[in-house]
Amino acid sequence: MRDFADRIKRLLVGRPVPSGALGETLLPKRIALPVFASDALSSVGYAPDEVLITLAVAGVAATSLSPWVALAVVGVLAVVVASYRQTVHAYPSGGGDYEVVSANLGSHAGLLVASALLSDYVLTVAVSVSSGTSYLAAALPALVPYKVEIAVAVVTVLAVLNMRGSRESGRAFAIPTYLYMGVIGIMAVVGLVQELTGTLGRAESAGFDVVTHAGWEQGLTGLAGGFLVLRAFSSGCAALTGVEAISNGVPSFQRPKSRNAATTLLLLGVIAALMLMSVIHLAGAVGVRMVEDPAHQLLHNGVPVGDSYHQDPAIGQIAATVFSGFRPMFYLVATVTGLILVLAANTAFNGFPVLASVLARDEFLPRQLSQRGDRLAFSNGIIVLWLGAVAFLIGFEANTTRLIQLYIVGVFISFSLSQVGMVRHWTRELTIATEPRDRSRMYRARIINSIGVLGTGTVLVIVLLTKLTRGAWITLTIMALLYLVMNRIRRHYRRVSEEVAISDLHDARVLPAHVHAIVLASRLHQPTLRALTYAQSTHPTVLEALTVDTGDGGAERLLDAWEEADIAVPLTVLDSPYRDITRPVINYVRSVRRESPRDLIVVFLPEYIVRHWWEQILHNQTALRLKTVLLFTPGVVVASVPWQLGLPGQRHIHHGVRARTAEGIIDADVAMRRHVDSHLSHPDQHSPAGTGGVSADPQENR
Known about the structure:
Blueprint: H1 2-13, H2 29-42, H3 47-55, H4 66-90, H5 97-105, H6 107-139, H7 147-163, H8 166-197, E1 209-210, H9 222-236, H10 244-248, H11 257-286, H12 294-297, E2 298-300, E3 303-304, H13 314-322, H14 327-343, H15 345-361, H16 379-395, H17 400-404, H18 409-432, H19 436-500, H20 505-508, E4 515-520, H21 526-537, E5 542-549, H22 554-565, E6 571-575, H23 582-595, E7 600-609, H24 613-616, H25 621-630, E8 636-644, E9 658-661, E10 664-667, H26 668-672
Parallel strand pairs: 4-5, 4-7, 5-6, 7-8
Antiparallel strand pairs: 1-2, 2-3, 9-10
Helix pairs in contact: 2-8, 2-11, 2-15, 3-9, 4-9, 4-11, 4-19, 5-6, 5-18, 6-7, 6-14, 6-15, 6-16, 6-18, 6-19, 7-8, 7-15, 7-16, 8-11, 8-14, 9-19, 11-13, 13-14, 15-16, 18-19
InterPro entries: AA/rel_permease1 (IPR002293), APC_K+_Transporter (IPR053153)
GO cellular component, one term: membrane
Membrane topology: Multi-pass membrane protein
């Protein structure tokens, strides 16, 4: 069974990679860009939509502000990118926001950021995959009933690819990411050329009228109008999600890690800004109309378009207009955009495991998350992320509209605290820097980060005000639970470290006064003899076998076999009128412990090692129950003695247990194969402990 499971693992994950090959799995910039930037770039597929939908609340005229909103988003993006370029140089270990905040604002603030990032990574996978699945379902309506199953399958494929290692997954995702950038770039260039030459057409939705929401008939006026613009701005800031992934993934870059990560950040910022501004501008140029409820808010000749109308995303409407004379290009843009939304989840599969490994190293998460798998990927972190994303997809039925309400809040909490942390970092550095050039650079960096605090903090407040009751409270609750759990894990690890620390080396080396070995036996067979052999090889002060009489005749048969084999180990029989095996053994062991509190008691349990999983159900249940209780008994050591069922060569390996027969002391295996008529000899005839035998009298061995 294990061999079969291992073959399946090798097929999915690949052959193990030695630790020395870690450098070969590191990413060059050309692969790091699509690996870490796909999340931020893919947000261009839905961030413009959110801006247009939000502004459309106040009517079509309000959407004319979308380029200015996009420009404000680009401004914040520039500040965030500039800040994170400093972060990857100052903190290259991969902790990103967590490390920055922990070092400058304390462990509690750092843990808050870690909780926000972990939850945001999970939501990134869920939102991206559900959105990409929606594109697929829109192209193939027959798949609509299976959206959840498809989304779960996609996340599973992403997890398996990442289990194979960053380089392999990076190569797999590089082509579609570059293709996405290429087709959006071509669409932007062709659209701008058509606009300049006067040949740019109008979108299908441009002929629709938009029903203004109640209370907004006067458009963007007063405080409410300003608040709506801020809402649109916060929605557009979805384009910033994923920027932090590069700072968390610095260890995955080739050397020089910090410089390569900073260069990749700059490329990401420039490309994302150009794509966002191009899409927003062309959406206005072709007259794209997008609303929250198109069936009732879009009017054609004064009549609602109804449920039969499908509202394509902004990029889809732009592509249909720009490439109206070449339909295949429209399908390519739509397909690649849907694909990149799915692949955007790969950014989280690179960032989450690295951050989890840093937290595990700091003892805030289980240490298993800090260990690399066979392919040098943080496999356990990938599995945890997969489980979390699948839970969200199933719980929210892969509904992007519902999932998007939980999104963004976590990343802007980390953005804001990271900016504050970097301001404090530069302030501290300025107190020790003396070179004018260095101080000038630090002053500039602090100004940039201060602007970042203002920008990201404003976005965070707006997001909380506009999304709290729509689902952001779920994210905040998850963050709070993660914070509490990680604090408890840290306290547990510290308590364990204090408990097992050596306070007095001399006392730690003191051996127990005596060792009392107990071998549990249900019948006399080779596993029992092996356990007796191993027990005797430890040279205990006292060695005895123990069985329980449940009234089924098994104890009498064991006694007869014991006498027939003339084994020189005393056999103690415990009476159990209620047919329970566990309690009498536990009570006996504890009574021995009470009588000799300074002695060490070692209980040897013969166990079957089965070859098939279903055989485990048929064996070892009593041993498992006994082991579970005995492990919590102070002063008691449990030793499992394995017997591999079905494994050739198991016979004739017991050379330690001696049995007395009519012809003298012989090997126990031989005694088992011979029929003797004599009974146990007197205790004074037994071999002394010094010669390898054990007295049959328990009192003699005490």
